[in-house]
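Formylglycine-generating enzyme family protein, Membranihabitans marinus. Tokens?
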Amino acid sequence: MKTTSILITLSILLGLSCQSEQKESKRTAFSAKAETKISYSDADPADLIDQMVVIPAGEFEMGANSDQADPDEYPKHMVRVDSFLMDATEVTNAEFSRFVEATGYVTTAEKDIDWEEMKKQLPANTPKPDESLLKAGSLIFKNTDGPVPLNNPGYWWAWTTGADWRHPQGPGSDITGKDHFPVTHISWEDARAYAEWAGKRLPTEAEWEWAAMGGLSNTVYPWGNELDTDNEIHANYWQGDFPYDNEEKDGYYLSSPVGTFKPNGYGLYDMSGNVWEWCADLYHHEYYDTKKPEEIAYNPRGPETSLDPDEPLIPKRVLRGGSFLCNDSYCSGYRVARRMKGDMKSSYNHTGFRCVKDFE
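Tokens:
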């Protein structure tokens, strides 16, 4: 096996299944499809920084809510969560910058890869790649020239040395003028460290799903059951043929500033699309099977152990919400019940987070 293909393997083992990013993001008055209506918000992103909203206590059916559901979304089961506070938006570059300035924190993507640790997650006798390929970096989406098999993310993900939250597209890129964009290239460990510093925590998977519905019941998306009602775009996701033709009907190729699209019923922005969001829970593909449909799970905290049958050696955590790369042909990650999983040390240019806080 060539070292380049090993690193593609490493990059996939570092993570997820559904992802995006390579052009400069753009927002136009809207030129791509004049007939398309977009649910833009009139919020000023600067006013949303540090804002938290109250999520009321409630009871709901957690799990599969459409024919797109994956096996790990079954069976539906009753859950009740207590009231809590949740960040109105995904954590931004400006907020994460304050954390780093105050603590000197170094993210996972800014650290060289520890081969001794990494090889424990690879097949036995996998040869060590060239040292240059173990330098600090992260994964960046690269659109393809045409259709490719969608069961191999290696076609559109590229390990990029020097890519991190400050350099989201790799060396030569920066976040100047992007204070209000969601911070990306964030691992679960990075998100947890920020949450602890901020006096908050990461949401449980149950809290996240309950909050995403915004007061609606058993809906597929935060706004209802139709992805594009009357050809209206409600979120930042991939319109067109993934991973080579993004029609950009929503006005963006990459991530968008927080508060760009209308919030859900609880006042939460980007609970669908933009960037994936880390949750506190470990991921286990059969976790829902442990729940009895006739019983109510109170404030569930997830399984005690992690298991992804595709990569059983790697403990994983849950991500929710989808990203600007999600598309119905690939992952439909913008559904409120959609579950994704990622290695706790993985980072991508479409992965971020938001925090929650318990009432005193």
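The radius of gyration is 19 Å.
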